[in-house]
Please model this.
Amino acid sequence: MMERPMQPSRFPVLDLVNPREQTLALVVMLVIGLALAAVQMIWAGWPLWAATVMVLCLLLIPAVLKWRTDARRYGVVVMVLSVLLAAQGFHTLEHLAQWVEYHILNWPASQSAGFVSPANSEWIHFVWNWTVVLVMVYLIAKGFRNPFVWLLLTWSVAHSLEHTYLMARYVQMLQELRNLGVQSVSAQGLPGILGADGWLARSAFTQGTLFCNLPGLTTAPRLDVHFWWNAGEMTLLLIAAHTFLRQRLARRSI
Amino acid sequence: MAHTLDHTTTVHGDVVHLFESNGAGVAVNDLDGDGRLDIVLADLNGPSTILWNEGDFHFRKETLDESNTRAVNIVDVDGDGRLDIVFTHRTSGVSYWHNEGGPPGAGSQFARRTLPNVLAPAYVMAWGDLWGKGDLDLVTGSYDAELSQVQANAFLFSNNGGVYVYHHDGDAFLPQRLTDHAQALAIALTDLKGDGHPDIIIGNDFEEPDAMWRRAGDTWQSIAPFRETTESTMSFDWGDIDNSGQTALFAADMKAYEIDVRALAAWLPMMADMHPHLPKSDPQIMENVLHLPDGSGGFKDEAQRRGVDATGWSWSSQFGDLDNDGYLDLYVVNGMIAKELFGYLPNNELVEANQAFRNNGAGRFVPAPSWGLGSTASGRGMVMADLNNDGQLDIVVNNLQSPAQLFENRLCGGGSVEVDLAWPDSHNTRAVGAKVTLHTSAGDLTRDVRSASGYLSGPPSRLHFGFPADAKLQGLDIRWSDGAVSSVAPVTSQTRLTVTR
Model:
């Protein structure tokens, strides 16, 4: 596959995520998707998460075409980075939506569920975060390396460990509920390691130490904890990608 | 060490339903004037019980022909010097048992009387000298959820629920209605502002916000000084937890005290059904709240920082210096039985261990499982009192569907002084509302005389001060409910004083 050098730019990340020739298709799919989503929600009673998934599926068509072009132009590694930026960007937007619903719109925490989180969020987050780690490992193996990448990897692994803890408790909780003969209750949304009522705040190991009393880390609601996990991850990803792409451009221009 | 008492609060059928699940209270005071504190236990189904204290944890049982009782207070209603018994009921107002006296050593006789004009349905009550005139006024609050369940339309059209203040003027009680609706499970009459006048605080169940009033002349103004409040307020207690002279108010709520999956699984289906949908801006949170002055005229919640935000499905909560180290400890009884809520659990019961916390004197309450207070009976009313006159606070718990318990204090720490106040020339003969400060080399310890605290319960008018064994006692200051001040010195450790005004 022929790699074509990226054009010199102050913000190569923006150039990479730019849909370019797929812009029109993206807009058209978005409009069609929103219209269909509205119809399905109003007349067919679809939940918001299902309508959102449908819109995302439609957007995936121009996105895949765009990524195919990225692969042809810049190679597979940059294409994978482009996919990661888009996907993690949407994931962060989902958490931003929850944050806005809770903090700006003052919705109850139980209703501040963003666009797709009413679906099985424990499985989705567990799989998604470990996928990010695996993609990171692949990219690192292919040369995506700078100090911010290592920070990002550390952050992503820590984030994934938190979701592993949540996932383990979710599965255990489902089993306990089954033992009680309860089938209809969702076990999602339990506190994790960080945040209010989390392991750090409530574990017998931390009681009486300063670790059970760290503002934010032991007091923030789960919604905030995961907003900041993802905001941090996205920020580090942008910086790491920017640094990587700038290095790559510099090498090409020598 | 746990003793079983000869009383079991039961419900009307084989199965516990809402709101019989809320159980009943207990009160302790010296009914017959023999120096030993007696126990009165309310009951939903059978008669209420008086346990006459015969010393060394021996009690003689007598029943009162009074059932369907909820809260119980022991106060001298008519100012004749003898302590009377007052109950609230599941679906009616208060009942008043006048102490007729009796032969020495045989306990007192009680006769049922009425309180003129005290007619509104009452779930909670508290007595206090609200106008600072040496009278004993009454505040009651209704629990409208149960009234609606039992009386249905009769309650809806009666328009007599809510919170009432009854100004005790001579032989009359003059009612004043503060609000026409309440879900009151808790009540506190305490001076949070420190201006010498008691405030009225009503703790409401469900999503009904707690309510608070402060006296302005002859009227009561609604105020809202708290940034956060409990959502389902189960009980209040208050005290000077850091010996700073400032009052902290503890409000108990429902929140699992363990984070292991098995414990949480017992809560989750119930929470899924009843979890509230309050907006973030709502001040109500579903966990215990410890209100402390924030230094700028308001209050801040310190429950989590001090380690007492979660005590299970909490009912009565009480501060008391259980280890006689000069700092108020905290005990909370808990558990729930209700087919409607916990039908998926064996016997429809959420089984939890009562939670005891030692105040470490450095700002935190540390779990104290070694004290042996972790009973898993379903506790409701609870009072701390020195029942064997050894200078240590014992604990009486009125459980639901299992025998009441008495926890004998064998911690054997520190020294103590106990104080009875007498104000014989007033209608407030036990000086309810008086604040007493014991000055010691280990700090100033402040306690107050109250008729009601915790959940549906009445603590004794006898005040208990614990302190380190090597502390030097410097004297007592008493601020009576009318603002008068008395001083007593010297004071000797391991004594019980009666201060008569």
Q: What stands out?
A: Chain A has a mean pLDDT of 91. The longest helix of chain A spans residues 147-179.
